[in-house]
Specification:
Helix content: 40-55%
Largest sheet: 7 strands, mixed
Shape: globular
CATH topology: Rossmann fold
Structural class: alpha/beta
Strand order of the largest sheet: 3-2-1-4-5-10-6
Number of domains: 1
Order of helices and strands: HHHEHEHEEHEHHHEEHHEEE
CATH superfamily: Vaccinia Virus protein VP39
């Protein structure tokens, strides 16, 4: 990805700044039916404390807050965290505290009954240290959410069309499971399926979001070419345009101390 960004004179540094609004729109409506939320909602009590590592725009933080005593949301991107804080205020949720930091730089003494980390691990280089810190922070249980099949696999033909090479796939849940095994954590795994989440209200929005996802130059010829590729490729579902994948396979990796 960094190589592709360099090729267009850009950087991945502010990727989530650019994606924050669209990510917030795409995720907030799906949480109630999400398998991780459903699992956690059966476990937590009004006395439970939760640490949400890589909280993003607050998908799980906001959903769990009414069910628990406190949620600490750790998120390194200010734009993403801003959406979380706005929603918390709008919903009058007073038991959420936020930390603008990476997990690597978060205070070492952070603790909670339940620790969750949803779709965060993919780009982490020192993943063993990251996972060990998560495990130490969890008093009752730690829950990771990771893809088995990535969006990149679905959009691979588009990537190859524009970049002329096969895109290297991100690590999946099986890789995290192997690292956990190596550091002495024998985790449980629940394989779950969720509806495809890359949906767009219009072709214009699809071009905008997938142009970022595919790391394409922001010029009109490229956008027109992408539009011509997307028009026959996207499918209509429930009044929205969607990528041609009915469901995505993920894993909930969890363990207790």
């Amino acid at each position: 990805m960094d190589t592709a960004y360099a090729g267009i004179g850009s950087s991945s540094a502010d990727y989530w700044n650019r994606r924050a609004q669209n990510y917030h729109r795409a995720t907030r409506a799906r949480t109630a039916s999400d398998p991780l939320f459903q699992k956690l909602s059966q476990i937590v009590t009004p006395n439970t404390t939760v640490l949400d590592v890589g909280a993003g725009t607050g998908r799980f933080t906001l959903a769990l807050a009414p069910l628990v005593k406190q949620v600490i949301a750790v998120e390194p991107n200010a734009a993403m965290l801003g959406y979380l804080e706005q929603e918390a205020t709008a919903q009058h949720l007073t038991n959420i505290s936020t930390l603008l930091t990476t997990w690597q730089d978060a205070p070492a003494d952070l603790r909670a009954d339940i620790v969750i980390c949803s779709h965060v691990l993919y780009p982490i280089r020192e993943v063993d240290t990251f996972l060990t810190k998560l495990a130490v922070a969890a008093r009752q249980g730690c829950y990771l959410y990771m893809r088995a099949m990535h969006f990149d696999a679905v959009t691979a033909p588009l990537w190859q069309h524009f970049h002329g090479e096969v895109r290297h796939q991100q690590p999946g849940y099986i890789d995290a499971l192997a690292v956990l095994y190596e550091i002495g954590i024998y985790a449980n795994v629940d394989i779950v399926k969720t509806p495809g989440s890359m949906r767009f209200p219009s072709l214009d929005v699809a071009v905008e979001e997938l142009s970022e996802h595919l790391i394409l130059p922001q010029d009109e010829p490229t956008r027109n070419q992408l539009r011509s590729q997307l028009a026959p490729w996207l499918v209509e579902r429930d009044g929205m345009l969607a990528i041609p994948a009915d469901e995505m396979v993920s894993a909930i990796i969890w363990w207790t101390p």
